[in-house]
């Protein structure tokens, strides 16, 4: 079954997502439009209705979910920052033939710093260890 491609996020959408991810990481839970406006809107001098529109658009894109809280909606990210990034990368590489996908990854890594290569090696080692571990 094919999945919908990961939606591209605009700069303001990314700022709102960063705020929601930060709240989630801090244990603050879902946010109302007012709570997002108090932070993101104040930093950027945005109207409440602008953020209401952005959150509605993020909901339609499937990267945010909302639930009713009295007369307000509370918004939360559907997945983590890392999950959305991984999904975006999989979408970008997924449609390529194996040789093209490999060539694209090599080209990407050819421009990586030594620290980025070290991070990649560590991530691959952790993944291999997790896959080799006996099932829990």
Average pLDDT confidence is 90
Quaternary state reads single chain
Helix coverage percent of residues?
55-70%
Look at the helices and sheets and give the structural class. Answer: mainly alpha
Number of strands: 2
- Per DSSP, what share of the residues sits in E-state strands of 2 or more residues? 5-15%
Break the fold down into its secondary structure elements and pairings.
Elements: H1 11-25, H2 33-44, H3 48-60, E1 64-69, E2 72-77, H4 81-94, H5 98-110, H6 114-132
Antiparallel strand pairs: 1-2
Could you walk me through the main structural features you see in this protein, from its secondary elements to its overall organization?
Helix content is 63%, strand content 9%. The protein is elongated, with a radius of gyration of 19 Å. It has a two-stranded antiparallel sheet with strand order 1-2. A hairpin with a 2-residue loop joins strand 1 (64-69) and strand 2 (72-77). Helix 2 crosses helix 3 (48-60). The mean pLDDT is 90. The relative contact order is 0.11. The protein starts with 10 loop residues before the first helix and ends with a helix. With 136 residues, the chain is mainly alpha-helical.
The gist of it:
With 136 residues, this protein is mostly helical. It is built from 6 helices and 2 strands, in the order H-H-H-E-E-H-H-H. It is elongated, with a radius of gyration of 19 Å.
Descriptive terms for the model:
9% strand, two-stranded antiparallel ribbon, single chain, 136 residues, 6 helices, elongated, mainly alpha
């Amino acid at each position: 079954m094919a999945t919908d491609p990961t939606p591209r996020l605009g700069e303001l959408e990314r700022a709102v997502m960063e705020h929601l991810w930060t709240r989630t990481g801090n244990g603050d839970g879902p946010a109302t439009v007012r709570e997002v406006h108090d932070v993101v809107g104040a930093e950027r001098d945005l109207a409440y209705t602008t953020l209401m529109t952005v959150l509605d658009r993020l909901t339609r894109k499937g990267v945010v979910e909302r639930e009713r809280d009295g007369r307000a909606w509370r918004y939360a990210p559907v997945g983590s920052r890392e999950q959305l990034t991984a999904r975006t990368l999989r979408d970008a590489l997924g449609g390529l033939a194996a040789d093209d996908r490999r060539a694209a990854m090599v080209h990407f890594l050819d421009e990586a710093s030594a620290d980025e290569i070290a991070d990649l090696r560590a991530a691959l080692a952790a993944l291999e260890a997790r896959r080799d571990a006996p099932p829990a």
